[in-house]
Specification:
Helices cover 43% and strands 13% of the residues. It is α/β, with parallel strands linked by helices and 513 residues long. A 5-stranded antiparallel β-sheet has the order 1-2-3-7-8, covered by helices on one side. It has a 5-stranded parallel β-sheet with strand order 11-10-9-12-13, with helices on both faces. The longest helix is centred in the C-terminal third of the chain and has 29 residues. The two termini are 39 Å apart.
């Protein structure tokens, strides 16, 4: 008998799977997806992941051979964690807190992770800040029999450039697949809204969807506010637009809530704004679309335009989208520094997989495997779950990545533009001024707010407090803060990364020892 012990996700190709597995399409969503997993495992066993499209992480028990089987989707959109007790029992869940509540778990801080976090601002790789708690990485399954773990990688990103197509043909293929995905992303009796910024990804998603309402967040400071652009896009597409205005007081007040529900510290300042957006959106819908994935697949970041210049040097320094501290600085700041723990070690195997590919493909592969999993998808899952909101990401789909994996880099970036083919596809349903609008990113005025004494009281207190002294040379981190106050605005990321770690540590090891 197959017992499904835990499942989180949304299976996109459920109609085809129901037909193939002999299941009724009229089942409720929960019953349908559980039956797809159960019957799919009976039919395909460990190869079930090859047959599923969508977002998923689950654990099941097979009593025929006393096996626990766990799997995580191809891109890691849903988290999955595991822990082996001293008496060789497997504890696993999509949430770390669920593991912590189980008999046999011993809570202990993994101090080594702080060195990685100080550079990347997120928890990268399979280790976590809880000693012994591991992430099952994307595209992998885990089998646990007789106290022994076996982990197998069933999927990985691969790039095979195809030079037989022109720009319009690539754009047509993208658009055709996006249209198909939107026929599958929800059922007729579900109603969804759509997150909308000023960028092409969310605008394209909204234009292709049947969402009647879009949701945006903004600020009083026009330099950081994209909500006006979002409102213009929504009006052009004849959709409603809800605007959430984020105040600095609201932003700082919610930080402990975010770090607790994130379960791992995250120094991405946009995560706080996203948490507020999720809570506001959940007041009037329980299902929302979001546009994650396209930047990493199709060359959306401005730094990708430097790929050719980086060349073979990439493998010496490029560990993903963020890298804010050099080792010499961490050595000065941290009380317990280990020279063997360096971020570049996390990606050596990935570089070996991409040997012979062009530099942009290498950068994309690193970001797909490290940055998306550790930061972007974690944020989307944890903050939406905490708010009681379900988010579906139609652009994070194997069919969309398959196109990107075959597309030569010249159709992704050029001297004037990034995401060229993707923008060309979006221009089929959007005006060119929106489809080809310069990427702004999900920007937050934190670099200004952090210097304001009206809002930074807790930041200054934590940088000088007993918790900070456990991990850092407080004179050194306060010197960084003072440099920031004196005008070195680049230091805000370093301060925010240290602060978010301390808030998270307080939530999990001080308030809940």
């Amino acid at each position: 008998m197959i017992e499904i012990r835990e499942y989180k996700g949304h299976i996109v190709n459920w109609r085809n799977l129901c037909d193939e597995l002999g299941l009724s399409r009229e089942l409720s969503r929960e019953k349908r997806e559980y039956e797809i997993i159960r019957c799919g495992y009976e039919k395909w066993g460990h190869e079930i992941g090859d047959h599923l499209y969508g977002m998923f992480a689950f654990c099941l028990y097979d009593d025929s051979n006393d096996e626990i089987f766990c799997i995580r989707d191809h891109f890691g959109t849903k988290p999955f964690y595991y822990y082996v007790t001293e008496d060789r029992r497997l504890l696993c869940s999509t949430m770390i807190r669920n593991i912590m509540e189980k008999d046999g778990f011993v809570k202990e801080l993994n101090r080594n992770m702080l060195q990685i976090y100080m550079s990347l601002t997120y928890v990268a790789g399979e280790d976590t800040f809880f000693k012994g708690v591991k992430k099952l990485m994307p595209g992998r399954w885990l089998s646990f029999i007789d106290g022994q773990i076996k982990i197998c990688r069933y999927w990985k990103p691969e790039f095979h450039p195809d030079n037989s197509k022109n720009l319009e043909e690539w754009a047509d293929e993208i658009h055709t697949n996006v249209k198909q995905i939107f026929t599958e992303i929800k059922t007729d009796n579900e109603t969804a809204e759509s997150f909308l910024s000023g960028g092409v990804d969310s605008s394209y998603v909204l234009a292709m969807s049947d969402a009647k309402t879009s949701d945006s967040c903004g600020y009083d400071d026009e330099r950081f506010d994209e909500s006006g652009l979002a409102a213009e896009t929504a009006k052009l597409l004849e959709r409603e637009n809800n605007r959430c205005l984020i105040t600095p007081e609201q932003y700082f007040d919610i930080v402990p809530y975010v770090m607790y529900n994130m379960e791992q510290p995250l120094g991405d300042a946009s995560a706080i704004a996203f948490a507020i957006a999720c809570r506001e959106t959940a007041k009037h819908t329980k299902l929302c679309y979001s546009g994650e994935g396209a930047d990493e697949f199709f060359g959306g970041y401005n730094m990708y335009r430097n790929a050719e210049r980086y060349g073979d040097n990439l493998k010496k320094f490029y560990v993903g989208n963020t890298n804010i501290m050099k080792e010499e600085e961490k050595q000065r700041i941290l009380k317990n520094y280990d020279s063997s723990i360096i971020p570049i070690n996390l990606v050596k195997d990935i570089y070996s997989e991409t040997d012979g590919l062009d530099p942009l493909s290498k950068m994309s592969d690193i970001d797909i495997q490290i940055w998306l999993e550790g930061d972007i998808y974690l944020n989307v899952d944890k903050m939406s779950t905490a708010a009681g909101l379900e988010i579906r990401m139609p652009l994070t789909d194997r069919r969309i990545f398959d196109i990107a994996s075959r597309m030569p880099s010249k159709f992704k970036i050029n001297d004037e533009q990034n995401k060229v083919a993707f923008r060309t596809a979006a221009a089929k349903v959007l005006p060119e001024e929106i489809a080809f609008r310069k990427k702004l990113g999900f920007i937050v005025p934190i670099r200004i707010w952090l210097a304001d004494d009206r809002y930074n009281t807790d930041v200054k207190a934590k940088l000088s407090g007993k918790m900070a002294a456990e991990f850092f040379d407080t004179d050194e981190i306060n010197a960084i803060f003072q440099e920031y106050i004196n005008g070195n605005s680049d230091n805000w990321r370093k301060i925010w990364t240290i602060y978010t770690f301390l808030v998270w540590y307080e939530e999990y090891f001080v308030k809940r020892p």
